[in-house]
Design goal:
β1 and β2 (14-15) form a beta hairpin. The longest helix has 18 residues, at 26-43. Helix content is 29%, strand content 31%. It has one domain (2-73). The protein contains 2 helices and 5 strands. The protein is α+β, with helices and mostly antiparallel strands and 77 residues long. Strands 1, 2, 3, 4 and 5 form a 5-stranded antiparallel β-sheet that branches.
Amino acid sequence: MTHVYFDCSNRGRIVPDYHGVHVEDLVEAHQRAADFVRELVKRSWPRDWRAWTLRVSDRNGDALLLMPFACMVAQLP
């Protein structure tokens, strides 16, 4: 189990995750990231999220994965 953080950013803004969550592995981190982005985009629609990215990092600040919001925007009806 590891602790990960989900920071959102675009060219001019960073929204840090100060709390993070525990996940079993990178697969769970990816699933939680996808769910987080999907829900944020759904709730805040029609805001244009295509320029935003979710960065999943560990306690040391090392990036584990990057998820462009555009990949979720394209999946919405």
